[in-house]
Amino acid sequence: MTRESAEELGEDDGGSVVYDLDADCTADDVEQDTPYLAEINGVVDYGVFVDLSESVSGLVHESVLEGTYRVGDELVVELEAVRDNGDIAFEPVDTDEYELESVSHDYSLTGTNRLEANVGEQIHLEGTVIQVKQTGGPTIFHVADEYGVVPCAAFEEAGVRAYPSIEIDDVIRVTGTPEYREGSVQIEVDGLSTLEGEDAEEARERIEEALDTRAEPHEVDPLIDWPAFEKLRPNLREVAKLLRRTVLEGRPIRVRHHADGDGMCAAVPVQIALERFIADVHEDADAPRHLIKRLPAKAPFYEMEDATRDLNFALEDREKHGQQLPLLLMLDNGSTAEDVPAYETLAHYDIPIAVVDHHHPDPEAVEHLLDAHVNPYLHDEDYRITTGMCCVELARMIYPDITDELRHIPAVAGLSDRSKADAMDDYLELAAEEGYDETRLQDVSEALDYAAFWLRYNSGDQLIQDLLQIDNGDDERHRELVSFFADRGREEVDEQLEAAMPHVEHEDLDNGAHLYRIDVENYAHRFTYPAPGKTTGEIHDRKIEETGDPVITVGYGPDFAVLRSDGVRLDIPQMVSELEEEVPGGGVSGGGHLVVGSIKFVKGKREEVIDALVEKMEDAEIDEALSSAAPIDD
Amino acid sequence: MTRESAEELGEDDGGSVVYDLDADCTADDVEQDTPYLAEINGVVDYGVFVDLSESVSGLVHESVLEGTYRVGDELVVELEAVRDNGDIAFEPVDTDEYELESVSHDYSLTGTNRLEANVGEQIHLEGTVIQVKQTGGPTIFHVADEYGVVPCAAFEEAGVRAYPSIEIDDVIRVTGTPEYREGSVQIEVDGLSTLEGEDAEEARERIEEALDTRAEPHEVDPLIDWPAFEKLRPNLREVAKLLRRTVLEGRPIRVRHHADGDGMCAAVPVQIALERFIADVHEDADAPRHLIKRLPAKAPFYEMEDATRDLNFALEDREKHGQQLPLLLMLDNGSTAEDVPAYETLAHYDIPIAVVDHHHPDPEAVEHLLDAHVNPYLHDEDYRITTGMCCVELARMIYPDITDELRHIPAVAGLSDRSKADAMDDYLELAAEEGYDETRLQDVSEALDYAAFWLRYNSGDQLIQDLLQIDNGDDERHRELVSFFADRGREEVDEQLEAAMPHVEHEDLDNGAHLYRIDVENYAHRFTYPAPGKTTGEIHDRKIEETGDPVITVGYGPDFAVLRSDGVRLDIPQMVSELEEEVPGGGVSGGGHLVVGSIKFVKGKREEVIDALVEKMEDAEIDEALSSAAPIDD
Amino acid sequence: MTRESAEELGEDDGGSVVYDLDADCTADDVEQDTPYLAEINGVVDYGVFVDLSESVSGLVHESVLEGTYRVGDELVVELEAVRDNGDIAFEPVDTDEYELESVSHDYSLTGTNRLEANVGEQIHLEGTVIQVKQTGGPTIFHVADEYGVVPCAAFEEAGVRAYPSIEIDDVIRVTGTPEYREGSVQIEVDGLSTLEGEDAEEARERIEEALDTRAEPHEVDPLIDWPAFEKLRPNLREVAKLLRRTVLEGRPIRVRHHADGDGMCAAVPVQIALERFIADVHEDADAPRHLIKRLPAKAPFYEMEDATRDLNFALEDREKHGQQLPLLLMLDNGSTAEDVPAYETLAHYDIPIAVVDHHHPDPEAVEHLLDAHVNPYLHDEDYRITTGMCCVELARMIYPDITDELRHIPAVAGLSDRSKADAMDDYLELAAEEGYDETRLQDVSEALDYAAFWLRYNSGDQLIQDLLQIDNGDDERHRELVSFFADRGREEVDEQLEAAMPHVEHEDLDNGAHLYRIDVENYAHRFTYPAPGKTTGEIHDRKIEETGDPVITVGYGPDFAVLRSDGVRLDIPQMVSELEEEVPGGGVSGGGHLVVGSIKFVKGKREEVIDALVEKMEDAEIDEALSSAAPIDD
Q1: FRET label pair with C191: which of C50, C94, C601, C634, CA 20 to 30 Å apart?
Q2: B238 half-sphere exposure, CB direction, 13 A CA radius
Q3: Model-level ipTM above the cut of 0.85
Q4: d(Cα C552, Cα C534) in Å, to the nearest integer?
Q5: Which residues in chain B are closer than 8 Å to C602, comparing Cβ atoms?
Q6: For the segment B362-379, what is each residue's pLDDT rounded down to a tens digit?
Q7: How far is C398 from chain B (nearest CA, A)?
Q8: Which one of 3.30.450.20, 3.90.1140.10, 3.10.310.40, 3.40.50.300 gives the CATH number of domain C504-622?
Q9: Which CATH class is domain A219-468?
């Protein structure tokens, strides 16, 4: 029982009780006007030295002593003074009869939320180890408690691992002093131990409960009322909670997203929301930079090349910085069977995966590999609920203060993917209230497309943020900027189409559809904007305008073809699997859905594959309701 | 009026004058043997405490006092002593009658040129904020005054922006202490305020005037007398001034240059001159590394891809390091209409652009987008004044001490672009005096070409500097090095031509010219040195030697052709615009001038485009004076 | 002679001897109860000041003095006390007659092995300068002595080179204080001087001798008994010594290796062994990261592109960090004439080159360019001794403690290159003892191949280390991981072959061999796994299984062909040189050996080149012993 608790219980400490400090008590445990049992450990001319605990000692001056003393004698003393140099003076207390009461060291904890107020003072902290970084000097343990994460520096010997038995996920007690280190608060460790048994269990439960509560996403009303979207909200909340929890646990997050307008409208708000939340949680000011990374995907699915690199980077961060392996967040990408090999690669490591996508999913293929999966098709909705629309809500659930910067984003996302959602009107109105008319929104969408092309595999954080006008100021400049990028992109589309249109071949299919074919390898510029997929899409759109539905457009290169259909049900995955069988040695593979898709084959079998493909189109069912609104992945 | 100025005016301070310190005066303003008005703010046994200003207080000991005193009484005192611990003792002064003269705090400024002499002492400094970098700890304000730039560290709270109202371009007064920080001088800020009104205006004018003077380029005599070049000198001086001014203002500089011999002879001397000037101006030893970056351009013009990336990097440096957006310096590149889209992209940001080029310019297209433009064609001169020749003089205007390292560079530049300038003899002689005969110079030129090819988009700073023998020692090693690289390059050219020459097709044109065609896709090695442009040029040169003028050579790949003519006026821009119309769906575009150029088209229309092109050549005017000396851009 | 040595010699210092400190003696040289000759340099009321050496002075108090003294008088004194503030008090000693003995300053050296024990104390150190890094603050001299390497920080002025006359390879004496700096020990320099004449010679010899001894590789018994391998061991020892010596001298090492299974089994163990040895030698904890870099080679030989980049990086590291130029270590690569141009490039710089390879070497071409060369063919052995097998032994000679982590590696290397070495059984058994049966080893090999393809030019340190299971824990996870990667790779091979096999063309050659041809450009997927070389190899293997020997397989693309033969002696280098002559303008080049190789040509001459090639094959000699076991380089 501590002295404080003794007092709380109203016990009298006025003479009949003498306190006996436990061996691990420190000077902080010594109170004024309170009698303590001491043991004499030295007798000198000018007094006697006494020990109250292992670390609490002091002098009783001869002037206040009577009689003679020997080393080993007990003596009841009170604090007289603490000198400037830290020396402690005691004075004897007259006590005839007393009861001893032991005082245990006051390990009262200081949460990571109160570190700045305790800079320079020794404190105790309990938490979970989430990262162990060995530097050339000290070992840095990043410790998460109920309130946040703080780096704790323990020094053993230059570059030598301190407390080698302590590992990630251990619950530990740290005794140390918060100090500013390059401006961030860090705890200089005096001592550090693993909690055992009940203590550990109790602490773990306490922290777990707190984290669980803190991980809870914020309750935000959706930006607009939209019944269809309501079906997805519980799932999005789960993802929000998973991401917040991931941040609280100090696990890094790697975002891979479709490199188009909707993909960026999805990924950038979530990235910024997470960065801000990380900054709140972590004492280390560099944490946002180290713990989240957004990267455009090279392909419309998660390629082995991307996965191999992501994995290698993650392993190197673990090796070099003692970081946990990351959570992978796939946005506007990741719902299909084509993602499976990459997911299976990561499945051999502790890398959770969450997906928010609105492309036609293949839940059977992917579901068992994912920790969370949001896709409108899983709720009988479709691509019209774009990933950008979902992720603006997701970002708000993670960090609601971001709301005001995002009101125009869902409209951009919708226009980018030409969503025909009934909610588009509301989103457009919402954007209009912020000063974004449809022209400006369209400009943003085109500008994103154009800039993403030239940025290639670079995330282009600042430029994209400028184009999206998130966290940004000058309205007029934004208008000019996006209209410049958009116009420039449109000009280049026009140039491309000027070359290509004369070479588009027309055919009337048996089912009454128009078929247009364009050889994008030979009749479009290569390695320039727009890429073959977008070139084909633009031709398709112009042809629909010219001739009306039903229209199919095929853009083909030496070993690939991209398909777009309006008004004809192609069912491309089905076609691909038929072609695989019908064209032996054709190396046919591909993906897509009813009206949008792409097919690969070996160069030498192009003619055969395309002929077989067109034959299938002859028989395809006309369905005027079908529209290939969303742009084809390049 | 300050006391010092009072003294300067010869006023008597011997009894009839008592000084009254302004509230903001510090102990530094207190002089010995001088009477000050004090107010008693405490009376104790051993004396009275007096205040002379908000921060100047001290004790008057009872032993020197007579009578009684009350808090609030005035007293005239003199400095008695300053104790080791900083305590100040005063003694009373007998004064019957006196005149009060107020003393304002001595804010005499310490320029950035005198910081090292004042390390550890508090100083005042006025200057313009040129960069505001938020670190995890303090906020670093980079401040430029009349003499240079110094980082000033202000700490508010870990990672929190100090003085959030202060922005780039504000004129501020800093009170702080210069200290060494990782070896560079930095001011630890005690206080920092924006100057307002007249103070600001006066300071701004003073700094402006000083910067303007310091920006003035050095007066250097050109390395050789050359009347034609004289026409360009005033323009070059303007660029030199702009660049020096840019450095003084702390704005970063990004150099993009043509990745060939002349381009590197232009860019490297300017880069080194600027690096040295930056090192002189900035206290921060890392400034040269942060403030200038040289990059070869991927194409013979400023591509959208390069511009997009440059812009994104610039935005990220602004975001991460609080840097100003950079000035773009285009060298041996940048004068043509093909550069316009990229320039227009940057025009939406505060990014000044300066160009030094000797390719045929399109002033109407570019002039309004540029802050400075030097090109011999703008003065009725031509490509024979190479960019390297101009930029050696530019580098000397920026930093004259570099002169001795550059005497051989103009000759290398001239040989690289096969300049037939009348000044070439003088340049060759100048180089010869430094030990560079024509063989060695030619070796340097070929070595640059060869190394640049393999370095691709890497600037290869050290290797290129070694090949140019700037800032470098061992003469013998340099000879061996460049002759090795040059020979190796020549061997690879020979190998390429061994494959290609048997496939060169010859035709006699109606106008009497020889036409040679080579299919560089099918009859030259790909992705290796020399690239198609240089391969075509080498074939052209050999054919001229074999057959004499007039000769046209066309090297074509699947979707491009490069053209070279000696003795025939092709006017390639004219041809391109005719072909655009004559070959619908050909996707024809291109650039160049009378006798050198390149054309792009879609793969499927190659035959048609080339046939139409040859037809035009049949009618082209013979003009033996015309020579395609400069190498074709690849 | 120092006083200590005088004492050691048993000389009496009891009155008859007075010591005379040399001018450079310090207070540390002054001992208690010992008479020293002093000179009076000041006389004051309270005593006289005396000098014992340039830096040793003190007071003799008047209370202990008798008589009068004048400046310049000699006096024999003893140490009385050293005050807290460092002032020294002496007292006079009565001496009638004495002998003077001079005391030289005790420069006893503290080796880099005893720095941690002397942190905070001034020490002396002698060593060779191996790196001089100018920082923004101090100049850092990295100094190697007999025991290791330590950074010594000397400060002259911010960013100004301290001791500018001191250069790499100078032997110097450092006086300074070891301190922890970011956790590593660094010496803060008080003084630093070049040793001259005999001192230098003696020190250099001492260090040289110590380094030579330390460079000596460890005596390790090979993992298995293998007479054929014994022939190579002395050469490997030389390489081990060269590498250890390189580390001791602080020279960086750049490893370039073949990007296949055997190449990685060779390079990774050597990399890790060197990293650990560097960590032992250098006080600077970052040294392993700065001093060794492993990179896969882009081609099966050392390309000019790689060499140019390596050289440029090396020059930049020299410029920026004052590092020596590196040693280049080529592994599983580097023995052939194709490497010569790259080697010749480096030959102009101080960059030693060592090669361990098992590809058919061209010793005449390369030997004079190499500092060390290990290749089984140089000892009448062949590719069956794989580079991985050699390098596991090399790694053990460098750092024997690594042995336990490497026992399974030679088996992986052997399987990767399908070595038919008689030692394979022993290696497999050795691996089996560690829990690696042949299936698991084969999985590792395939997994390496597959991962290397997707990592492209990235070294993928951690992922490759995971796949090789070096320095790694969880056995079960490793099995799952490699079997996943291996299966995935096999699946993709199957997909590739499904497309390609129907297009393989068969021909019966006159010599009775089967010839199979596959157009990998038109009938295999491009830019995906497996690349053309492996695709051809897999087809070849399947055909051998189907039809039995002798079989030749040719995989050709637009401008290249890869060749594999089992049972037919092709002698590819011979074929290439014949084709060069027979097909003018064919641009034929290539490399390889009897049964494996690749040929390049210009696209437009493909048919002619391949026809001529096949004609040669018709006449090729059947030799059933010949097998193209090792995989073709892609």
Answers
A1: C50
A2: 15
A3: no
A4: 15
A5: 499-500, 503, 522-525
A6: 999 999 999 999 999 999
A7: 33
A8: 3.10.310.40
A9: alpha beta
